[in-house]
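Suppose a colleague, Dr. K., hands you the sequence of a protein chain of 284 amino acids and asks what its three-dimensional shape might be. Before reaching for any lab equipment, you can write down a predicted structure in token form. Begin with the sequence itself:
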Amino acid sequence: MKISVVVPCYNADRTLARQLQALARQTVPPWEVIVADNGSTDRSAEVARCFASTLPRFNVVDASSRRGASHARNVGANAATGDVLAFCDADDEVAPDWIEGLQKALSEHCFVASRFDLTKLNPYLQYVHPQALGLIEDPTFDFLPRAGACGLAILRSVHELVGGFDERIRYHEDTDYCWKVQLAGMTLAWAPDAVIHVQHRSSDIEKFRQARLWAASQVKVYKKYRPLGMRKISNRAALEEWFRVARLFARLAVHGGTWSDFAWRLGTRIGRLQGSIACAVLLL
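The predicted structure, expressed as tokens, is then:
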């Protein structure tokens, strides 16, 4: 099984070497590794090229013509020569038997998602990612099972069939990708033996920004899939969440505590508003 690993990269010189070292230590080596540089202004490309003699069929490709992980993954996929495309991010770390775990799952399925682990790279984080337990099935954003892009593996022919990642969707592009592959008749399967250690956002400002951008793109995805059978999301429930955010703010202002959860919740609500205005869809 020829697995081409595609690593989208943007200004990741502090973490990229860790990921490439992990790929070099695989119990079953990948067929090739492609770093798709999305216009980095730091030393990412230089760091990547240091692994040219360490990794088999290693290549750094220019993916700077359009900003976004979707574009970088598509450029990397177009440059790949393997039968299977596996995606991982530059700031995470694949487990030593990640490729081996993918091979096991891909022997039965054409589209699989890795298992996420947050404990290794975030030892103080009190949060269990849904993908540590299986595919993501979110009752508040209900349609088909989905998974994060950093850990997806798919037959190259299927990736080409659906047209790759939608480059118009900057965030939640993995949700869109998972759903359109399933609507094309394929099943998304979980690969519990293929583990990726995921790096979580550390500061409250980063969490707020990530939540805002994700929520704004969530509206775009909702608008696309609502006519295809996605369940309508109640704005009443969203208004109730606004009240919970307000109460959380009041409690933190009076009694103190960590602002992490508040930053994420507020970012989500503001992102939904921004997305609703941009897409002309009311999704609070």
